[in-house]
Amino acid sequence: MKLVEWDGRHREIRSRFEAIGSAHRAEIVAARRLRRLPTDAWRALASAGLFGLTTRGEVGPRAGLSELGAAVEGLVCGAADAGLAIAVISQAALSIPIVDEFCAAGRRDSILAELTRGALAAFAITEPHGGSNARDLRTSLTSDGRGAWRLNGEKWHVTNAPDASVIVTFARTVPDGDYTAVCVDGQAGGVHIGPVIETAGVPNAPAAAITFREVRIGPEQILGAPGEAPTILKAAFLRERLLSPFPVLGFADHAIGAVMDFIAQRHSGGRPLGEFQYVQGRLTDAAVGVETLRATAHAAMARYVRGANASAEASLAKLYAGRVAVALATDAIKVCGSYGLLEATGFPAALADALAATIAGGTEEAQRDVVYRRLKRKKGSWHLL
Predict the structure, then answer these.
(1) So what's the pLDDT on residue 24?
(2) Taking burial as the number of CB atoms within 10 A of a residue's CB, which of 59, 89, 138, 261 is the most buried?
(3) CA atoms within 13 A on the CB side of 318
(4) What's the mean pLDDT when you consider all of the chain?
(5) Contact 223, 103 (CB under 8 A)
(6) pLDDT under 50 in the chain at which residues?
(7) Is 122 exposed, middle or buried (0-12, 13-18, 19+ CB in 10 A)?
(8) How far apart are CA 325 and CA 322, in angstroms?
(9) What helix, strand, coil percent values describe the chain, rounded to 5?
């Protein structure tokens, strides 16, 4: 039962990447235990064109983002694991569109070719002292007096950092304090990548700290015009929020099917589990949450694709996606009882991933703030759309 469906092109994309997720499921699950990116799966995604969807190519970056949503949904459904999708979103929704639109012409094509073929990009904004609060950046960019700059500072919990070839980061220029976006070579002198951070959620999208110590930045590495960095960052966060429901929807398609198969085979007191109202209640509540999220996610994405302001709608979708993800994983475990706690089901891992999703890319409180500010501006009309 799906109240909202992808169109034909999106269905083909979803099916293509679901097949890749299914073919690489064992590797993707094993990568969780090793806290590493599943490299064969990553190469397969690149070969299938995943990282070119959000460039200024055939359909353009806005429509391409909706195609990326379909691809991520399919990937997670096939893999029965959402971790890899986080690495994909960081690459294809945060870093690649920025390189495509704002990188200097002499560097853009070579970097973009590298990234679309599967080289890793890291989007580094979070700092140890203040999380993702972009208004409180301490990373600095100081002129060397000869037309270049020196980058100093530390970024924290950067997805894809351990093997990043390219780092898109943000700093404050000295002494004026303006935000500036920068494209850094991951192997440049002065770039130090820390060990993989041992998180409970999405460990197969490995993250690490990055320290910049007197990293030389040439003028060709500055992204965008002076003063444009806040706009670049705002657009990137919007893309991330718009995509956040689709891994949840992909896992939901897998999880509800797995739970239905389980209750069809299990009995309690001589009765099939599916005859108990509490089991029916949990599954119907899950279906209601998932289909409501699907409608919300598609509405927000459609608004974005047609060029309308979709900020509040994206925050609403991300906020609700986190709730649905936590509830879905919890209900799957409870319905399946002790079986649901087995790592082999993927449900405990999904719960850890779901909790991570309520924090990564902006906390629930940050999303509420965006929605509330839109409500205040509506002046008597409470609805967002």
Answers:
(1) 98
(2) 89
(3) 30
(4) 92
(5) yes
(6) none
(7) buried
(8) 5
(9) 60, 15, 25
pLDDT for 132 equals 58
What is each CA distance from 61 to 29, 55, 349, in whole angstroms? 31, 5, 32
Assess contact for 232 and 61: CB atoms under 8 A: no
Q: How far apart are alpha carbons 18 and 369 in whole angstroms?
A: 35
**Residue 106 is encoded by which pair of tokens?**
């002499």
The helix/strand/coil state of 207 is strand
Alpha-carbon gap, residue 83 to 205, rounded angstroms: 6
In terms of Cα–Cα distance, which of 144, 213, 145 is closest to 184? 213
Question: What would the two tokens of residue 116 be?
Answer: 């679309």
φ, ψ for residue 142, nearest 5 deg: -115, 130
Distance, in Å, from the CA atom of 116 to the CA atom of 51, rounded to the nearest integer, reads: 5
CB contact at 8 A, 325 and 251: yes
* CA–CA distance, 97 with 103 (Å, rounded to integer): 10
Specify which residues 131 forms β-bridges with. Answer: 127
| 353, 82 contact by CB (below 8 A) | yes
Residues 212-243 pLDDT 10s: 999 999 999 999 988 899 999 999 999 999 99
Pairing of strands 222-223, 267-268: unpaired
User: Can you read off the two tokens belonging to residue 172?
Assistant: 């404050």
SS3 at position 269:
coil
Task: Please tell me the predicted confidence (pLDDT) of residue 41.
Answer: 98
